Every structure is written in structure tokens, then in C-alpha cells.
Predict the structure.
Amino acid sequence: MNFKISKKELLDALNKAVRAISTTTPLPSLSGIKLEIKKDSITLISSDSNISIKTVLTNNDKEVFTVQEEGDIVIDSRYILEIVRKIDSDAITFETIDGTLIRIYGGNSEFKLNCMRAEEYPEINFAVNGEPFKFETEKFFDIIDETAFACSDKDTRPILTGVNFKAEDGKLYVNATDSYRLASKTVDVDKDLDFNITIPSVYLNDVYHSLSLEKEIEIAIDNQKISFIFDDSLIQTRLLDDIFPDVSKLIPTNLLQKVTVKSRDLLNALDRTSFIKSDGKNIVKLSINEKEIDITSSNQIGSSYENIDVISFEGQPFEISCSGKYLVDAIKAVGSDEVTLSFSGELKPFIVTNKEDDSIIQLISPVRTYK
Amino acid sequence: MNFKISKKELLDALNKAVRAISTTTPLPSLSGIKLEIKKDSITLISSDSNISIKTVLTNNDKEVFTVQEEGDIVIDSRYILEIVRKIDSDAITFETIDGTLIRIYGGNSEFKLNCMRAEEYPEINFAVNGEPFKFETEKFFDIIDETAFACSDKDTRPILTGVNFKAEDGKLYVNATDSYRLASKTVDVDKDLDFNITIPSVYLNDVYHSLSLEKEIEIAIDNQKISFIFDDSLIQTRLLDDIFPDVSKLIPTNLLQKVTVKSRDLLNALDRTSFIKSDGKNIVKLSINEKEIDITSSNQIGSSYENIDVISFEGQPFEISCSGKYLVDAIKAVGSDEVTLSFSGELKPFIVTNKEDDSIIQLISPVRTYK
């Protein structure tokens, strides 16, 4: 193996590749990145067996590399990333010295590394099953921003650690819930699309951060995995195979009160009280009437009292308590200057919405408090 | 107790005060800040019994506060800092509701806090013994930057966790060592000064970050403690009472080789190899001749080779190994465009200096390596 490659292009590909590296992999070779060097392509492969990433660099658009000798090798991901990041040169040369000992050099720097043979790396099945369809990258980013935070971070019900994507009749319904709150987004899609899958949020996050700012990505889905195809890369993650709960009936329709406030006012007030915690949780009580919302929070050390103006109010004055953090997350996800909270009873979940965009609904369960 | 105070001035004083708060204090009241409210002064006191800080706010220069009712109270340091930081108002009012329950309000926010009685706070002796002398703040900052990093972070020899300040015959000798390296600084001071003290580096760091940018501070020293007086604050820290080793004889005078390079070149080369570690340490071997320094570093996974140009060289070519991190720290402390390394043998400590400023010397012990 002997090739010279642009530092920038290699570093971009490596930064993508390391997203699939787990520090706790039981298989030593999976802590490495596999490089397949061919005359006219350089392929980087990484996987933690749940998420796998393949990037194929070519010289089609511009001269990225020159290959003197073909070959395959597996290089420790931390070492190759540090070396390529730190070499002070536009081009970096890799060459085999002897078996798995390789030399990497550029500028005034030279590194020798003991690597692993490509044969030790497991075969990763990158077959793309299912018909690929195009999806706007921007829209994909929005969906993740608006839903993924609401997933459960506990393994007690594994299906809730994922974001559910269900396409039918020209609509894509995206839902995430930890059973105390629900983030729900609906967008229009092609009428032919028909699937119901749940993607682990931790891998969805890796995909999110790997995506470039291309206008569109291609997505292909089969029963076991989802493929994201963009630029010169293919990312595949496994799906959760349990059935996602039917959350459509959770959203209340019989709304008794509806209050609209400036998002900024409510966020600032909640932020000021956020340090008042009991058992690690910041619980706020909202007392709502046609003029104002009083926000109180207390624990054994102290209490806080905030007061914000209401823009509009329908219904009877009342009180409800909930997690301050969940309310902050929901307002941020809804993302607009004004935010509307709608209630159907003191002990029933309430919804957080935005007048201008009805595609996104955040649902929060109240907390019972004792005076 | 009832007073109204400028948020900015109070926040500045609180940020200073929390530097003396330890999270692991055995005495509950020491997790609080003591406030003494008098008609014409507001005093903040904090201490972890090793370092103590007192700040006295007055209305002498400008109107900072108005006091309706005098009183003393001890407020949990985290809560008061969060509350004052977050209240959205230029002025904040504190008032006693009932016993130790106080109300803090400003803007649209109101907090109630359960505090501690001032009687529960231990008596802190802030008496300043010893004749105070003035010291340039800038010079004090430089001294700390150039020496304190070299202190030991282990408790095996407690005296080495401090920076030694010894004044005699118009010179102040400042030394810090972990027994593998030594940072040594000498500055001119008033001839009358005569002391030999060792200040724990952790408290010196607190003092460093509390100092304002006034031109001068006042310092007073007695056998047990050192006082720093500036602005409206007094900081006292205890001294280490063991005898600091005599390090003056460690600095070699019989220099066989002397090499000068660009600091930036050497720092960059060392940075590139810094990830190659054995047992958590990055050991570099320097091979020096009249033209260049070769820097090699290796462990079981790989090796690096760097090469930098020499500006000047005296003596015979030779090799020496040392901690890459210690060398980086020393070059940064010496702080100049060019740096000179002077050697007196392969297994003897070598010195790192800067042609333009002979007040600062860094000494590093070599490491024995096996090929």
C-alpha cells in the first residue's frame, strides 16, 4: 500500500467515520477504521455493528489522491485521526513498511504505526435494500431538532429510546416520547411512501452530525435497517424491532384553557428558577389567569416566584405543575416568538404549540404536587 | 435586615467570595457566605478555613446600596450566586421575613431562602500581622504564570504543593518544584524585605483569579498566613509550615551544550507527538546537532519523528529524553520567540531559558530510556 492524499478530504472522511466507532467494542478491529486503497478509489469503513459508515473518495471532481500501490489496512481510529489532524501539510502519504507496520508522513513529521490486517475486520453488509427516496436535508434536521430530545434515556423500555417515523397516505408522522412527554411532528411526503420504523436516537444523532449541507439526502428503508446516502457516504443504522406505542390518541382535543405568551418571557422566567430542585428535578407550578402567569418553584431551601404577562387567554383561571426542564425543551422545540399552552384539566397532559406552524405539537404530563 | 444593592457590585463581590468556598467543608455554615449589613458598609465573608476572603462594600465612591435595617445572615453560596446572577434588574433587595427566612427580589422575580444565623458562622481572624508592602499586580501575575504550574499535585511531600517565596538582600526568589522539574524566578524587591514562605499553589490560584487589575496590591506576611489587600477586599491564606528544599544548587553551571530554536517550531513539533503515550506519559527523545533537533517518541502502537531547524548550537551532538509535557510547560513559561536549552550531560537536568530575560529559569530532569 502506498498513496498520497489531500489532508482536508481525508480529515473530513475520518471525522465522519469516527462517529461509528464505539469505545466499548468487544471486537478489537472495530476500534479501527478500515481503508481500502484501489487505483481509483479510497474507501473508509467504520462500524460498531449497530451503525456503519462507508465513505468512498474518488478523483472524479478533483484530484484528491494518487495511489502508487493498492492495499487494505485497519488503522486505530484515535491514532489516525490525531496524526492526520496534526500533520502540518496539505498532502499526507501512507505507505506499508512491513506487513502491518505503516509509515504516515507530511511536512516535517513522520509517524510509524502498527496496524491490523484487513482480514481481521468483520464483513459489513452495506447492501441497500428498499427503494431509495429523496428527502430535504433541511427538513430532516428540523424533524430531529423538534423530536429527538424527547426520547427516553433509560433502557427500561428500549423502544422509547428511538424516534418513530411512520409514513402513510402522503403524511410522515414523527414521534418521540419518554412516556412523560411527547414530541410530535407531521410533514407531507410522497403518497407512495409506506413504512413504520423506530430509529435509536443515539444513532440518529450520529447521522445528524455526519450530514453535509447538501440540499437532499437519499433514504432507503428495509425491515432491519435504514440507509442514508449523501455525498460520497453511506450510513446505515439498525432499527428498533419492538412496536412503537400508538401515541396519536394521547393528544387531547377537549381543550378547556388556552394561554399565549411571549416565548422569551416564559423561557427567561423558567431559567431563573431552574436551580431550585428537589430530588434533582425542577418542578414549577403555573397559576394562570387572563392577565398573567405566576410561576412558583420551591424546595426545602427556598422558593421562587416569577410573573409574566399573558397575550391572550381563554377559559377559567387554574393551576398546574410540571417539570420546568420539559417545558423549556418544548418551548425551544416549538421555536417561535409566541407560544400557546392548551390544557384539558389539572391532571391531564397539556400541549405546547405555535400558532404559525401546526406541524409540531409538544405534549407534557403534569406532576401532582402537595401544598 | 433590609437593604437594596446594585446587582453588579454585589455580583463582583460574590464571585470573589465563592473562591474561598469548599464543596467538602465539614462545617455546614462554611458552605455559606456571611453578610454583615451595617448602615454604611456591607461586608461579605467566606472561608474554607485555609483561605478566607473579606470584601467590604461602602458608598464612599458611589451609591452602591441603601440599608433600611441592619443585620447579619449566612446565605448558601450556590443559591445566592444563582439568584443574584439571574435576577433581571439593576438593583436587588434583601429583607428578613421571619428569623432566617429572607426574601430576595428584583425585576419580576422574587425568591425566598432559608438561611443560617450569623452566630453559627465561625469567628474568622482577619487580623493583618506583619508590615504590609506594595507589589506590582502585573509582576505578581507573571510570577505565578511562570512558576506555579511546576508544583507537585501529589500529597506525598506536602511542601512541594506550594510555591516558595524567599526575599533577602533586595531579591525575591520564587521557586516551585515537583522534584522532576523546577521553575525558578528572581525579581528585585525592596532591600528591607526578609521572609521565606511557601504558599499552597491551589490557594495562590484563588488569589490570582480574585485580583482585579489594579496597579498595585498590598501584601503582609507573618509566620502562619499571608494577606493580600486590594480594592475593598482582603484575602488571607495559610502557609505551608514545612521547610522548602534548597533548590539553588540544582541549577547546573557547567554547561556542555547549548541549543537555541524558535519556540513555535519546538512547541508545534511536541504538540504533534503529544498523543503518543506510555503509561499515560509522553516521553520524547531529542537528538541535537549543529543543524537540527530530531524529536522522536514511541510506544507499543507507533512512533513519531519530527525535525526542526536550529538557530545556534554550541558543543558536541548528543541525545537526551524527557517528558514532552514538561518541556512544553517550560517553553510556554519562558515565553519568548526563541528558547535556549542548555545541557550538562545526558543524565543531568537541563535548563530552558530565554536570552532576553534571565530572571526566569526552567529546569527539567531527563528520563532514562531503553532502546
